Here is the input.
Amino acid sequence: MYDNKTEAIEATIAELKPGMKSVNITFKVMNTSEEREVESRKTGETYRVVDAQVGDSTGTILMPIWNETIDEIEEGVTYILTNGYTGLFKGNLRLQLGKFGSIAPGEEPIDEVNSEVDMSAEDHGSRPRY
Here is the structure.
């Protein structure tokens, strides 16, 4: 029988790889893109999304932030992502909140972010679709 309870992974941004699940990570929101609207191909519903560049002492990565979560995050603030995952968007690594993940304010603020290492800049190629 398949058990979807995966052991949580405590990670830094530089340790992220495509396909990781149950990721717990602390990051600082560096900046966010302009908010845009995206229409679901399945339901036709419209969603709000911004791309947040988030970072820690090991690197940065892009993280899409959706709908009401947009109103809960602030640039320059440290957060803890619990039960997130990584995925690819157009061949580039993204950190994802997902429907089972949660974001909470961090306990210790991150002062130094390594902006030299951009984990979203590397092209991981397209994943085959089955």
